[in-house]
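TICKET #2291
ISSUE: user wants both folds in one file
ATTACHMENT 1:
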Amino acid sequence: MKPPKFDYYKPATLEEALDLLEEVGDDGKIIAGGQSLVPIMNMRLATPKCLIDINGIKELDYIKREDDVLKIGTLTRQSVVETSEEVKKYCGLITEAIPKIGHVQTRNRGTFGGSIVHADPSAELPLVLLTLNGTVQIASKDEYRTVEAEDFFITYLTTDIMPTEIVTEISFPITEGRNGYSFQEIARRHGDFALVAASCHLTVDDEDQISSVRLVLGGVEAVPLLIADFEDVLVGQTLSDELLEEVAEAIENEVEPESDLHASAEYRTHLAKVLAKRALTEAYERARG
């Protein structure tokens, strides 16, 4: 299938892109990697009247550390992030999750910001963003604003970004000390979207007791789901089988997945419990060293 006709623009600067968005409004759509937008247009699920290609805006392509924050430009290719030693050193969860995105060819084109803006609740990078308590920088013609990960995802494929805005940067706080992470998912085939995924980051003190923990599930709600109810149970404790069972029980009470052609609600709930326990266990063992 082919998309309907559209006008095409390729601005050289962010300012030009924002001017174009201000001019076209709802009729315009940003394109970078195109790994999600192009198939949707081909199926006529999206019919923008014009595309604004931001691939020429080099100022949006970078990875850098500033103080205790790792910053990634929205246009940075997923494959570049995947192989970055700086990302691996400071935010290993990102490095672990990215190889699960599609295939090498899609990661060579797909952009870091594009996957987050697309906001598929089963996609890897939205889960990582929420797990690491990251923030999203958004630009319009009039201002820059920063949105916390928990406020960015609204519902299925919908985020807190207006038609006249562009995501410019994604930032992650760097955690010092004894910390561990894990990303787990189950997909029918390698490269498919996950049926369910679990992402975890935690820290432990000198006595191997958990001092902070974040666990996020994908594929069980319309947005990535932060499991917050169990944090008080785990903090101050050493991880045990009994605690893991309490987590599994909390997850069963909290998630409400829907059945579809790929998996039943009951199976997704089962996967959520199993993968959460795996992610917590691996993150804990890594934190202990």
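ATTACHMENT 2:
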Amino acid sequence: MPLFQRDDTLPAGLLAGLLFGSEFVCIFFGLSLTMATRMAVFLYTAPCFTALGLHWFVAGERLSRAEWCGIAVAFCGMALAFADGFLRGNPNSGSTMRGIAGDTLGVMAGLFWAASSLAASASKTLFYQLAVSAVVLLALAFGVGQTHVDTVAPIAIASLAYQAIVVAFVSI
């Protein structure tokens, strides 16, 4: 599939990329407020939000009664996790409200992830997500002053190569 051919996907693609970049901005700030395990739980609400988005915005993608029940159970689990944050607080964040703010950013990241996957055509979504979010995240790095790299471990280079070659290129 030609990536740079005029096909009127640019506006939706830019939106998908901005949403995807926003997901990582939420993760970046949220991880300073909550534990990574909690962030992962809330980030992976994305499939539920995607299912709801498909139901509401894509003709022919309707949830069955059993699927609605599954979505309800998943959101009840998320509510329980939030309630736990209110009741126990977050030992890593220093306060209950900081932990709740981090959890909220995790849910927002999941929502942005879902929205980014619904915003553009499936065939070019990954391209737009990676291209636009690279610009957004580089701007964030400069904005918060995290641009200095002392060393890069070989495992980091191997991981990046695997993501770029296998996940983003070969698997498409």
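RESOLUTION: both attachments delivered.
EXTRA DETAIL ON ATTACHMENT 2: The CA atoms of residues 51 and 67 lie 9 Å apart.
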